[in-house]
Each structure stands twice: as structure tokens, then as C-alpha cells.
Amino acid sequence: MEPVMIIKQVTKRYKGGGGISDFSIQVGKGEVWGLFGPNGAGKTTLLKILTGLCQADSGSVELFGHDVRDRFESAMSRVSCLIETADAYEYMSAERNLKLAARFYPDLPKERIGEVLELVGLSNEKRKKVSGFSLGMKQRLAIASALLARPALIILDEPTNGLDIDGMLWLRGLIAKLAREEGTTFLISSHGIQEMEQVCTHACMIAGGTLMKQGPISELTHGGVTLEAAYMSAIHHQAKGEAMAHV
Ligand SMILES: Nc1ncnc2c1ncn2[C@@H]1O[C@H](COP(=O)(O)OP(=O)(O)OP(=O)(O)O)[C@@H](O)[C@H]1O
């Protein structure tokens, strides 16, 4: 089966020195990938490159067999992303916001709005103005909007921000359900490895812009190592490498 996403040797360096270097992974249908790394590791940079919000200096990204740079519209046609909070119109209701978002998808059945409100647990709040929503409710609404067109690939940047424990459990359940029942593929960036570990089938760990480890969770945790321990060792390894480079 053709991979959903092929990232090959992607490099992007900002003038200040940050960015990512030589990043490559291949993601298959229905897989849930966690992209883990500390602040400033390069997670958002990578997600922006994947979704055409930022250009790589070199390397390539293919989504569903289409190069993001050369065939942007085809590459993104089955992709939804939430990168750096998607703001809703505060003076409108949740339902009205979704109706506005639905205008981008002329073939969307009317009942889909009710379905996504149900999926994110906002059915009872659908007529309330977003201005009265908590951060967690706004996050749920943003996720509802991302789900509208039944995307085959969903890219989420720190989706647990603003969610309480209930919200986090709900989000993990939703991701697992969509991956299992609809074969939806996910790439999710997070600082919180413990929050997302249980729902991920695969992980990649990035530090200082470098991909340290990647693969199925079962391989990364082989021999009884926890994912967090594997992550900490990757981060320390990177920090040590940086210190040596400065000697
Ligand atoms: N537009 C930019 N111009 C210059 N440097 C940038 C820019 N965007 C990000 N950087 C730098 O690149 C590095 C990676 O940033 P990025 O936002 O990708 O990391 P991150 O892993 O998403 O971090 P966080 O978890 O804090 O959101 C950081 O050192 C950051 O300061």
C-alpha cells in the first residue's frame, strides 16, 4: 500500500540557527505518529513544512503520492491540520462557526455538522457563543472543524493544550476510534510524551532539530524500556553531542 506521507531528508535552517536537519520518516495508513521533543526542538517547523506554511531549504514531502511543493492542492486535498490555534469567531455560536467552515466543502452533507459536534462533545453547547467557551471547549471546536471533511490525514500541533484530564482522555479516545474505524492517519506533536504515548502506534523524537529516534512504539520500547526513558536518552545524547561540538 502506498504510504500516506513520505518525508525525505528535509532541512530548514533559520537565520538564528534554529530549524530542522535531514529529517526523514515514512507514515502508513491508519498509523498514529507522535512527534515528541522539547521546546524549540523543531516540531512546529516540521509541521509547517508538511502543510506548505513554510518552505524547506532542501528535501521533499509527499502526501498521498503528491509533492507538497509542486502539487500543493492535490497533496493537501485529504489533509486537515491544526497548527498554532485555529481561532473561531467569538461572537458566533459553535454551530455557526462550523457552518462557515463547511462552505469550503460544497459536497459536505448538512448532517455532518451535527455529527462532528457530537464527536467532540459539543452538541449541547452548539447554540452558545464561542466567547463564553473555555480554552478546552475552543480546542474541541477547532478539532470539530478539522474533522468536517473526513480527512484521511490529520496533523495536530500540541492538541492537548488547554484540555483538562477528561478532555485529554476524550481526545485520545477520538484519535484511536478514527484510526481504527476509518483508517485515519495522524501526526501529532507534543511535549507530553505520557499524554500521547498510549494512543500512538509510532513515534519520532526530535531534539535540537535532529531526528534522534523513530519507529513503531513496540520497537522503541523493546526490552521493557518506557517510551519516556527512550525519549530522555535521546535528548541527553543530543545535548551531549552539542556540548562536545562546543569544546
Ligand atoms: N520564523 C522563525 N525565525 C527564526 N527562528 C525560528 C522561527 N521559527 C522557529 N524558529 C526557531 O527554530 C527552532 C525550532 O522552533 P519550533 O517552533 O519549530 O520548535 P518546537 O519544537 O515547535 O517548539 P515548542 O515546543 O516550543 O513549540 C527554535 O529555536 C525557534 O526559536
From TrEMBL:
Please give the InterPro entries that the UniProt record associates with this protein. Answer: AAA+_ATPase, ABC_transporter-like_ATP-bd, ABC_transporter-like_CS, P-loop_NTPase
Record's SUPFAM superfamilies? P-loop containing nucleoside triphosphate hydrolases
Ranges for domain ABC transporter = 5-233
The UniProt keyword set, sorted, is: ATP-binding, Nucleotide-binding, Transport
Q: Which GO terms describe its molecular function?
A: ATP binding
Q: Which protein family is it in?
A: Belongs to the ABC transporter superfamily.
Its name, as the record gives it, is ABC transporter ATP-binding protein
Which species is the source of this protein? Paenibacillus xanthanilyticus
